[in-house]
Prior knowledge:
This protein is α+β, with helices and mostly antiparallel strands. It folds into 2 domains: 16-97, no CATH class; 146-254, Nucleotidyltransferase, domain 5 (2-Layer Sandwich), CATH 3.30.420. 29% of the residues lie in helices and 30% in strands. Strand 13 (215-218), helix 6 (223-231) and strand 14 (236-237) form a beta-alpha-beta unit. The termini are far apart.
Amino acid sequence: MNSIAVEIEMDFPDGVTVRGYERHRGAHVFEVAFATPERCVCPKCKHEGPAQLREKQEMLAIRDLDLLGSPSFWTYQPVLHQCPRCRQRTQVPTPFKRPHVMYTYRFEQCVLEQLVGSSVEDVARRLSISAETVEHILELQLAVERTISPERVITSIGLDELSLKKRHKLYATILSDLTDPEHPQILAVAKGRDRAATEACLAKLTPEQRAQIRSHRTDMSAVYPEVCRARLPNSQLVVDRFHVAKQLGEIVDRVRKKHALTS
Ligand SMILES: [Zn+2]
């Protein structure tokens, strides 16, 4: 048999290096290492000094983005710092994920982007994770303080409603930048789907930025177009095929269910 080497170009966050790669049960597994700080502060005695580091023996595996249609995981050895004064050992924070979670920051971002126009269950299925994980990520993302550069030129925006824990009636509103329709970017996320949530999202833009916006695409809720009309003086509502399709999809679903019940 012939064998050839295939090269794939991948982005890794600054400071992350790849030590190895293997396939494991259909997933891509990258062994990574990361840049560690020169100095550390001891959380116990507050002593600050040169880092005294050693790698833990255990390997941790965390989820990263999909690659060529399969999930990819990073494995790494956590790094410990030992305080030279009180001997306390603490884990050095990893630059690519927050503490106590099993996925990278960019995976969180990907989940949030996928939630626009999809249900929690759909995203969970697509990414092979649990619905609870999707909801947990959304909750973490709701707590992220996002700022929008006042220099940023935005001419088109989208407002979408995310529903999590449907039974508990928990909702979120997501504001995205659709200036480049091929690359929508999330600008703000707020709890709720009411007027206050919509106002909170749009308040992240300066009055000049709001005046620059020419078009907005929104979910078919009553509140979003109304608030946009009041806050975006030069913008027109664009009826979005995607949102209409979603609406239609729901109607079809409902019809099917009804049919299934009566037949
Ligand atoms: Zn100490």
